[in-house]
Amino acid sequence: MTTPSRYWREIPQRYRLEANKCKKCGFVFFPPRLICSQCQNRKFEETKLAEKGKVLTFTIIRVPPQQFVDQAPYAVGIVELDDGVKLTGQIVDCDFEDLKIGKRVKIEFRKIFAEGEAGILCYGYKFVPE
């Protein structure tokens, strides 16, 4: 369950794909972190992630969690962005037969789900064929 306060805190990452880049070793973190896991540095600069990449792997979800029942079946994959960052997300607007490892995709912002009957609408990124 996503709380409204948590959802609002995550807006820079969800909507603007803001990450942070270690000033010492250059490793990029998404979502942002406070300490670099590569060199333990605590100094970062904001960076924006690439908006295009390629599918590394994927699966078709046929029995989804409750909030995604109306979307099944759907594809979820790991995409390596052009800047090297790997993200997991739903792959949409693509027939399952056309979905292949190495397929070029781009990020679009779409509705993910609604939280409760009178709750907030949660938006985030999904991948679509380039």
TrEMBL record:
- Annotated ChsH2 C-terminal OB-fold domain ranges read 48-110
Q: Where is the ChsH2 rubredoxin-like zinc ribbon domain?
A: 9-45
- Residues in the signal sequence: none
Q: A Pfam family matched by this chain, by name?
A: OB_ChsH2_C
PANTHER family, A to Z: BLR3430 PROTEIN
* Stated name of the protein: DUF35 domain-containing protein
Native organism taxonomy: unclassified sequences, metagenomes, ecological metagenomes
